[in-house]
Design brief:
Length: 325
């Protein structure tokens, strides 16, 4: 099987009936790029920039960030690279940022909420990102978006930073797409409103599942409630994809679910455009997709969202032969 996968490194991720999707990789640092390239990822669907900020005593400088982003963009040689702005807070702390202690940090001051207040820190990251945009195909993504006001505010800051850079004589790409993570139920439910304000969505199921089922993604005690295949999750995912497509935008997924064997046929059937996963999952997922018919996965997805339980959904995918390995 490993040998069969290795042959697919330079092949497209295309179904038996010629529907092409993008299989991208999630990374945390430029050091992950060797694995991305050797596994034939067609893009970076999520670059978690938190690691640049962690394990140190002060904020990373613009220059250091610029070098990291530029390296990833250059090594992808024009293939799409989605870089997420700082998603700190929640469980991830920074010693040099004096964040408030909260009873429910996962519902608290984090990610875009923090960046919209700590604007100097946010602007430094956006400067580094926009400067790096000249070296490849950059897409900027904001995390933990709950309201349209947050999107507008973040985009206004981004535009202001861009004008500042241009005035200073820097080269900035005019084709930088701006998107959001859909990982809060309000955003998934009202996706049609958000779709008018952004270029793309990336569904963050790691958080979307925990918030939708109110089940902490770290808690063993409620792990049985953390259900990727709960019909509510599938319906939210469908709503997000449909809303994007209605506005001519694309929809991806960068949560763990995107690389799972059971999820791939369902997501394909729901119309997902981009699947972002750990690099080692790319070739198995490509192999699976190349055995599937888009038309058949559509029928599967329609049936799945009408079922009552996660077990019924998983069982259906299995019974109908969509797990090909
Ligand atoms: C997610 O929430 O699905 C996601 C990809 O982000 P993270 O795992 O970094 O919270
Ligand atoms: Mg998340």
């Amino acid at each position: 099987q490993k040998e069969e996968w290795a042959k697919l490194v330079n092949e497209p991720s295309v179904t038996t009936d010629d529907h092409r999707v993008e299989l991208a990789a999630n990374i945390g640092t430029p050091d992950d790029m060797d694995g991305v390239l050797s596994n034939g990822a067609e893009g970076i669907g999520l670059y978690r920039t938190e690691f640049l900020y962690m394990g140190r005593n002060e904020l990373p400088k613009e220059e250091e960030q610029f070098e990291a982003y530029k390296e990833v963009l250059e090594r992808m040689e024009g293939k799409p690279v989605v870089i997420r702005t700082l998603d700190i807070g929640g469980d991830k702390e920074l010693p040099y940022l004096d964040l408030p202690k909260e009873l429910n940090p996962f519902l608290g001051f984090r990610a875009i909420r923090l960046c919209l207040e700590e604007t100097d820190m946010f602007r430094t990251q956006l400067r580094a990102l926009l400067r790096a945009s000249a070296f490849g195909t950059l897409k900027i993504m904001f995390p933990m978006v709950a309201t349209v006001e947050e999107v507008r505010e973040a985009k206004a800051i981004l535009e202001d930073v861009k004008q500042e850079l241009l005035k200073e004589g820097h080269t900035v790409s005019d084709e930088v797409e701006v998107g959001i993570m859909v990982e809060i139920p309000s955003t998934a439910v009202a996706a049609d409103i958000f779709a008018k304000e952004v270029d793309f969505f990336s569904i963050g199921t790691n958080d979307l599942i925990q918030y939708t089922l109110a089940a902490d993604r770290m808690s063993e005690k409620v792990a049985h409630l953390y259900q990727p295949y709960h019909p509510a999750i599938l319906r939210l995912v469908k709503n997000v994809i449909d809303a994007a497509h209605k506005e001519g935008k694309w929809a991806g997924m960068c949560g763990e679910m995107a690389g799972e064997e059971t999820a791939v046929p369902l997501l394909l059937g729901l119309g997902l455009d981009e699947f972002s996963m750990s690099a080692t999952s790319v070739l198995p997922a490509r192999s699976q997709i190349r055995h599937l018919s888009k038309k058949e996965t559509e029928t599967l997805a329609e049936e799945a969202i009408q079922l009552s339980t996660e077990n019924e959904v998983a069982e259906l995918v299995n019974r109908k032969g969509f797990i090909v390995s």
